[in-house]
Amino acid sequence: MEILNNLLIGFQVAMTWQHLLYAFIGVILGTLIGVLPGIGPVATIAMLLPITFNLSPVAALIMLAGIYYGAQYGGSTTAILVNIPGESSSVVTCLDGYQMARQGRAGPALAVAALGSFFAGCVATLIIAVAAPPLAEVALKFGPSEYFSLMVFGLVAATVLAHGSLIKAIAMVVLGLLLGIIGTDVNSGVLRFTFDIPELSDGIGFVIVAMGMFGTAEIIGNLELKDKREIFTSKVTHLYPSKEDLKRVWGPVLRGTALGSFLGILPGGGALLASFGAYTLEKKISRNPGKFGKGAIEGVAAPESANNAGAQTSFIPMLTLGIPSNAVMALMIGALMIQGIAPGPQVMNEKPQLFWGLIASMWIGNLMLVVLNLPLIGMWVKLLTVPYRYLYPSILVFMAIGVFSLSNNPFDVLIMAFFGVFGYICVKLECEPAPLILGFILGPLMEENLRRAMLLSRGDPFVFFQKPISLGFMVASAILLVLVALPAIRKKRDEAFVEEAK
Amino acid sequence: MKIKSPKDFWSGLMFVAVGVFFAVWAIIYYQMGTAVRMGPAYFPTVLGGLMAILGAIVLASSFAPRAGGKKEKLEMPFNIVDLGIAIGVFIVLGYAAKLAGISNDYGMLAAAAVVSVLSVRYRPETRPLVLISAGCIAYGYLMKPLGLIGATAALVYVSAFGGHEYKWKEVTILFAVLILFSWLVFVHGLTLPFPLCPQFIENCPIR
């Protein structure tokens, strides 16, 4: 019963009043930015990263994790009441949730979304507790060639699951890798691509790139759209779903949780993919698919459970392998590194308080979220009436303070503005920024492991195909690429993303 | 040949240009090394080459007919020349500041101001893009000379001017709230070492 012991350690850590407070701050902030369209968990976490320097590592991770899964709860509120996704992962919730709201059933839709998310959160917490230790055990045996292959697999999976053109996504990953190696080369001490700018000798800060690409770029994009909102604030009356509703949703909640947990673990997965997959699954197996899009409660329950499950299980690769599966996890790794902790399988053994405390806090945070979201729903709805013209200068101020405080250097803010413009251009050209961010954080790691592996194998590139684990990752990457390149599947994938974009 | 997909065309071109740049720069300036002991040029050269190839594929596909024969439209509020001018302004004014012997900071501030004026005057659709970015740049470079209050004012007023509606009163109230919040949370709460008042005011009354 090692797990029980470990969870006990975790709860002892998570139940101290400081950690409860940080979990609470995290989930409140998460719900807040989840409800507000136009600011996502990536930008928020990036904004808060410099501040976490003053916290203990456990408190920092607990708070940042709370923001991510809290955003999944908050995002559904906006999707149901306003028909715009507060969070990208609640895109599909709009379809049926908003229809339910129009039929005067906003209350049950919100309740089912929150309760489904809570159930999924509990299950996903357990999955992490059970699955992470054995995975970390395996990962401890990884050498440089295994790590390199794993990163290749992670990046390939991330591009396959990205929207739009596969080639563009791969090119964005490569661009990220290239940007990542700007700075001093660890092996030779040579300054690479710094163009005699002293600030670049330490490389471009990851937080700065993330804030530019996801923060300022998103604000600029939002300002171009004039918003038209129709809010069903007054219609949230009876909150609790009927018996008949409950009977209809338990299946979708279970399936959504299972699918979401699985998709969350995959590199490149996470909340967005999970919610979309769950919705498609429900529509496929429903006896009466015609009711989807017209206010089917199943269409709210399944994706909302799935996105929360996916958000939480995406912590597994980050915690056990030190490899981010999406942009939020890349930021979490950034948070660990700020604290001087090298992410990887050793974290679990060396810092059990950190690992198990984080897991326990997820369960506690989910409990807080149900309380925050159900009885206090009215408060969040009011927030939606705050016009964007007040919000975005405030967001900008916090981002600018965050970036400036990294090293008190205006150059960082200039770089953020640069990546804001670049991110805006990328969105216009339909190049996804998320793969770039993953590549950016993995760039130096990949080069390091490639060099080590090649040194150990005396320059034999087949080393990646000789060790079984490494070979497995390489084969898996190749299969993924071939699968996506096949015309039949590509068509399906394109259809899937087109539907999502609507 | 006609460009069927401007999005693919420009992104392909961008990937090719950046890829070639990284690869060529690495080959010229850094050591290649061998596969066993990779020099600093090895990884960037391989990646730059890969990116150029991927970019070329995207570029080529932009001439292929689209499915359904639909014409794709690229809604970019500026063209490549505008972008070149904006980048040029930053480089020229940055160097000018260096030559004049004043801090590069003022060069960047001046460049942000020039590009903002150009945008508002000649490319009104780029207003959100340019003014939001310029506001951030102004914030960074004004922090030392003008302190937190001046920098925040620049960011709030400039970025608000990038939006659709601009009301002096509202923005001023917003500014007051934000400066109070920044002061309480960041300077007091998190003890970030930001100067509050402009440099020229000695003995700042607020701390």
What is the percent of helical residues of chain A? over 70%
Number of helices of chain B: 6
| Radius of gyration of chain B, taken over Cα atoms and rounded to an integer in Å | 23 Å
Judged by helices, strands and strand pairing, the structural class of chain A is: mainly alpha
Q: Provide mean pLDDT of chain B, rounded.
A: 87
Integer count of domains of chain A: 1
> In what order do the strands lie side by side in the largest sheet of chain A?
1-2
Q: What is the structural class of chain B?
A: mainly alpha
- Main sheet properties of chain A: 2 strands, antiparallel
Cα distance spanning the termini of chain A: 48 Å
Question: How many discrete structural domains of chain B?
Answer: 2
Helix content of chain B: 55-70%
Report the C-alpha radius of gyration of chain A, rounded.
22 Å
Biggest beta-sheet profile of chain B: none
Low-confidence stretches of chain A: 498-502
Distance between the termini of chain B: 65 Å
Number of strands of chain A: 2
Low-confidence stretches of chain B: none
User: How many separate helices of chain A?
Assistant: 23
Q: Would you give an account of this structure?
A:
The complex is a heterodimer of chains A (502) and B (207). Chain A has helices at 2-14, 17-35, 41-52, 57-82, 91-102, 106-139, 144-160, 166-180, 206-224, 243-265, 271-285, 298-313, 315-321, 327-338, 346-350, 352-373, 377-383, 388-407, 410-428, 433-456, 463-466, 468-485, 487-501; strands at 183-184, 191-192. With 502 residues, chain A is mainly alpha-helical. Chain A has one domain. Chain A has a two-stranded antiparallel sheet. In chain A, a hairpin with a 6-residue loop joins strand 1 (183-184) and strand 2. In chain A, helix 3 (41-52) packs antiparallel against helix 4 and helix 4 (57-82) packs parallel to helix 16 (352-373). Chain A is globular and about 70 Å long. The N and C termini of chain A lie far apart (48 Å). Residues 498-502 of chain A have low confidence and may be disordered. Chain B is an all-alpha fold and 207 residues long. Chain B has two domains: 6-68; 81-189, no CATH class. Chain B contains six helices and no strands. In chain B, helix 3 (80-100) runs antiparallel to helix 4 (104-122), helix 4 packs across helix 5 (127-161) and helix 5 crosses helix 6 (168-189). The radius of gyration of chain B is 23 Å and the shape is extended. The interface between A and B is large, with 65 and 69 residues.
